[in-house]
Design a protein that fits this description.
The protein folds into two domains: about 240 residues, Rossmann fold; about 50 residues, no CATH class. Helix content is about 35%, strand content about 25%. Strands 1, 2, 3, 4, 5, 6, 7 and 8 form an eight-stranded mixed sheet that branches. A four-stranded antiparallel sheet has the order 11-10-9-12, covered by helices on one side. The radius of gyration is 20 Å and the shape is globular. It has about 300 residues and is an alpha/beta fold. The structure holds S-adenosylmethionine. The site of S-adenosylmethionine has 22 residues, from helix 3 and helix 4.
Length: about 300
């Protein structure tokens, strides 16, 4: 997609709005072009995060339940697009697009219809969760004022499954953790947690940590000129995709995995690496010295694994 200087200006303004992180009281999408630009750039980065999260779900054997798929704060519809791309849509009864912006609803519905054809798509500005629905929420939780967030957290409890993918910021993570706490008695936690207990991030001693991960973008992020231009114009590191996410499912058999998951990115020096880990025992900061464990030190520096033995 060729972008004019006016297009870059629009994207910079959008980026500033998202960075501000202020809660949204009214629709802010101003034109179809703005949604188109978002979808092709910022939205594609979000698509990369979704692909990584969905790939992990496939790896552990999770699949999308039959029923409706509800996309809350659908924007340009990228979350639904990724879920349908990964799991197909023939077993779904309908797609419900929810957004306060009628412009976004129209854009997302049109794109999804173009790509997936026969699917029945309903648009609404008020949250509606049909029985047995799967709810997807992407980069929307932090836009909600606290009361709207709490209302949504209550409403989604009737769902069969919930997939949340948010930016890997501490604010987003706190909302994801709050949703986890609200849901963990009724749902099994599919990912990313190694346990079903109270989240270790809620311990006051862990206040400086937040639940997030770094996933890798596809090769095109490093090879295609448009992404270098995007990185320069918007001041975004396209090589890094921080994400906070949560997948809940009422039918999932949560295995007690007894595993330890790496949180965030290791902080390494020539002699040691500091890591934050999460397990049934809680969230811990640990120091791995090169001299004590050279193999683990090297692994953490070069290819940080998802799970640590
Ligand atoms: C940053 S965009 C994310 C869009 C899309 N989910 C994605 O991941 O690309 C947030 C979306 O949430 C919508 N939104 C904000 N507050 C909302 C609310 N109270 N109810 C429904 N949608 C809302 C906005 O209009 C916007 O489309």
């Amino acid at each position: 997609m060729e972008l004019s200087s006016q297009d870059w200006k629009i994207l910079q303004q959008l980026r500033e709005r998202f960075l501000c992180g202020t809660s949204v009281q009214a629709p802010y999408w101003r034109s179809r072009r703005e949604l188109e630009l978002y979808h092709a750039t910022l939205g594609q980065r979000i698509a990369w995060k979704w692909r990584a999260v969905l790939a992990e779900l496939v790896e552990i054997g999770w699949s999308l339940p039959a029923g409706a798929l509800v996309d809350v704060g659908c924007g340009s519809g990228i979350a639904t697009e990724m879920v349908l791309e990964q799991f197909g849509w023939h077993h779904l009864t309908e797609i419900v697009l929810v957004d306060i912006s009628p412009l976004a609803l129209a854009f997302a519905a049109e794109r999804l219809q173009e790509r997936f054809g026969t699917l029945p798509i309903r648009r609404t500005t008020a949250v509606e969760i049909p029985p047995h629905a799967t709810v997807v929420i992407s980069h929307t939780l932090t836009e909600l004022p606290l009361d709207a967030f709490e209302r949504l957290a209550e409403q989604v409890m009737v769902a069969e499954a919930i997939i949340v993918v948010e930016p890997g910021t501490s604010h987003a993570s706190r909302r994801v953790v709050a949703l986890r706490e609200r849901g963990r008695q009724q749902f099994s936690i599919v990912a990313p947690c190694p346990h079903q207990e109270r989240c270790g991030m809620l311990q006051p001693s862990n206040a400086r940590h937040w639940c997030h991960f770094h996933v890798s973008p596809p090769a095109e992020a490093f090879t295609e000129r448009q992404w270098a231009r995007f990185a320069d114009a918007l001041g975004i590191d396209v090589g890094d995709l921080p994400v906070s996410f949560l997948v809940l499912d009422k039918q999932w058999e949560a295995a007690s995995r007894g595993q330890t998951r790496l949180i965030g990115a290791p902080d390494s020096s020539p002699v040691d690496v500091v890591i934050v880990t999460c397990s049934q025992e809680g969230v811990r900061q640990q120091l791995v010295r090169k001299a004590d464990n050279p193999a683990l030190y090297r692994l953490l520096r070069k290819h940080p694994p998802r799970w640590i033995a």
